[in-house]
Design brief:
alpha+beta; two-stranded parallel ribbon; two-stranded antiparallel ribbon; 1 helix; elongated
């Protein structure tokens, strides 16, 4: 069973639903795996706990 972990800043729930659907579809198409075998975890981190180029995203 494919396991996918997505780490991201918080997103709109509808956008997250769409992402999960597309990830699942990609595994179904590429690996011919059943959709119910694809597991997707969404880990969201607030902007004050995520940094790019040495700066917190919250400070940009």
């Amino acid at each position: 069973m494919p396991n996918v972990i997505v780490q991201q800043l918080p997103k709109d729930p509808e956008a997250t639903r769409e992402l999960v659907r597309r990830i699942t579809d990609a595994f179904v198409d590429a690996y011919r795996t059943p959709a119910d075998a694809v597991h997707v975890w969404i880990e969201e981190y607030p902007a004050n706990r995520y940094a790019v180029a040495g700066k917190l995203v919250a400070d940009k």
